[in-house]
Amino acid sequence: MNHAILHSILNGARPAVTYAQPIVGLKDGEMRALEMLTRFAGEDGAMHAVGSLLDDPSLSPELRARLDLLCVGAVFDALARSPITEHLIFVNLSPLTLEQPEFWNRIQAWVWHLPIPPHRIVMELTQTCAMPGLDQMEGFAQRLRAIGLRMAVGDLGAGVASLANMARLAPDFIKVDRSLVHDAHRHPYQAALLNALALFAERMRVGFIAEGIETLQELETLLDAGVPWGQGYLLGQPEPLGASGASLAPHDPGGETGQA
Question: Per the confidence metrics, is the pTM higher than 0.85?
Fold first, then answer.
């Protein structure tokens, strides 16, 4: 890990920049939502995903939660200044951050200053190398919903997004990891599992999103499997918030693929 870069982000010398990536309906290609992603300028001058720091196993839980909280705050600050008014917005959140009193002290003020109602914000719980106990996670989920926020689990199949944990947390959206999407057209078991998950999500009225779609063959396989929504470089790359297609016609899924 480049500790100099990490500490320059934490002390504000290197700002966290909010990017947005479209989530689209796979059948019609229309944008359904935007996922907020955080980037920072590296020593090479290029923008890098903050996930490369958050996923570093050498990063202590305390620093990971501090960095994640900074990124979440940067996203909400950017959203408060954004003209976006009618799209669903996915905001990544580490389960470890939910244990931080500072998060709960700040989240209501963040939501209050948004130009969109809370129910259009989906807090996406990301995979982490450690997480609170499931009973505690259920309590956190209830607190998020009490504020009016929706919830998603990402990286389906690992960490907080294991099938057993997903059943307990009952999220509004589930996102299947790139590992199940990659070359699914060459692996019948992957395609069959995607189809089973899509049917489950439809029955439970839960939004189902495939991540990391990069080829036409993967897209065709996902369509055949009945996956309704997706994101990936094939469908739209992350761009700085404000330049990310926010002017496209909005769409409220209502009861179509997510709980109202």
Answer: yes
